[in-house]
Amino acid sequence: MTQTNSFSDSPPSRRDVIAQAKSIVVKVGTRVLTDSEGKLDRHRIALLSQQLCRIADTGRQTVMVSSGAVGAGMGKLGLEERPSGLAQLQAVAAVGQTDLIQAYETAISAQGRHAAQVLLTSSDLRRRSGYLHVRNALTQIHDFGAIAVVNENDSVAVAELMTTFGDNDRMAAQVAGLLSDCLLIILSDIDGLYTGPPTAPGSKLVPLVEHLDDSVFALAADSPSSAILDGPTSQAGALPKPKASSDTQAKNASPKRIMSKGGMTSKLKAAQLATSHGHNVIIGPGRKDDVLDQIMAGQSVGTLFLAPTKSIRGRRRWISASAPVAGALSVDAGAAKAVTVGGGSLLAIGIKAIEGRFSQGAVVSIRDPNGHEIARGLCNYPSDELAKILGSPSDQIGEILGHRPYESVVHRSNLVLS
């Protein structure tokens, strides 16, 4: 590639991108899976399931990350608006999840395979052991010839219901990070990334993004978290009313909302995370009936985001994507340069201050003198010991603590640049 700009009108062969992919993760959002009445669109699920099975028939590990539990529950319960109360959201998600997985199982089993329900919360991927268990489970599901249908466990993930992965966009990137040589396909109600608002005159679809930088994020102008189809909203915290009879609806047109928490910025952040792991990403039109078939045929559909040549692998991938940050280390300019430019480890002498209480092996955020995060990594010392040695040369650690198990505070092999 010779282009130096972020966008390109001359994309490389998509057939090559598809041929390199040994696993496929497809993420589909609520707006794609629900109709104008807010009910689960079973026809759309059937079309997607048929195409998923055709991908699986090529031997690739195939995973669907699906939103839609709350939307399905709203339709099943006859609710016109997404509940605002936490307990109500949990209950609606629980009701809807059964409909969602049943729809996938019906459609996938018709193709000779089975749907395997995998419900996750962000905490499931934060622990290294949990991260590996999820990866192993997905691998075994594939070995059995089934297709994993992953969704956020909204009925128990209290925090995630209110401040979620991002309509499953980030979770899809994290799931892709569990797999090898993966292509992440994010299906949206928008055809891809545009040079301006999609409906604005002169706005064009961007077919290829080679470098996902600030200029790309500047193009994303997210709409509010709900698409108002008609009518006013209900009072905050009020339980939405079940739909009235058809006669009543005709007399009193009621408001309908399709709720979605993931806008284009959320999708770009997911693409940024996935490409940092070495995975190519396509954001494409979820309502195109044969979208997955077209993508797998190498046709120019949506926007392709290319992964950089160098990417994050192994344990460092978990550190960057899923592990919880337990504390922060503020470093001086010399240490910041050594970490970001020199590729070095973080030494105690370069640390100016610490935040938080954490144990040995915890993931910490490393911040430059301006307070900006420059990296994350596994800390070799607990916070109480680190407080005693910060600013000290490495050869004095043993004298201060009585032992020196590590020369560095964060070794470069356990460090990921932000």
UniProtKB/TrEMBL annotation:
Keyword Nucleotide-binding attributed: yes
Domain PUA: 327-410
Amino-acid positions noted as binding ATP in the UniProt annotation, renumbered to this chain: 27, 188-189
Domain of life: Bacteria
Pathway stated in the Swiss-Prot or TrEMBL entry: Amino-acid biosynthesis; L-proline biosynthesis; L-glutamate 5-semialdehyde from L-glutamate: step 1/2
One Pfam family named in its UniProt record: PUA
GO MF entries: ATP binding; glutamate 5-kinase activity; RNA binding
CDD domains from the UniProt entry: AAK_G5K_ProB (cd04242), PUA_G5K (cd21157)
Residue sites binding substrate per the record: 67, 154, 168
GO CC terms, sorted: cytosol
Keywords: Amino-acid biosynthesis, ATP-binding, Cytoplasm, Kinase, Nucleotide-binding, Proline biosynthesis, Transferase
Subcellular location: Cytoplasm
Catalytic activity as recorded in UniProt: L-glutamate + ATP = L-glutamyl 5-phosphate + ADP
An annotated GO BP: L-proline biosynthetic process
UniProt key word Mitochondrion: no
InterPro entries, per the entry: AceGlu_kinase-like_sf, Asp/Glu/Uridylate_kinase, G5K_ProB, Glu/AcGlu_kinase, Glu_5kinase, Glu_5kinase/COase_Synthase, PUA, PUA-like_sf
PROSITE patterns (UniProt xref): PUA
Enzyme Commission numbers on file: 2.7.2.11
Stretches for region Disordered: 230-263
The family this protein is said to belong to: Belongs to the glutamate 5-kinase family.
Biological role stated in the UniProt entry: Catalyzes the transfer of a phosphate group to glutamate to form L-glutamate 5-phosphate.
Protein name: Glutamate 5-kinase
Provenance organism: Stieleria varia
Gene: proB
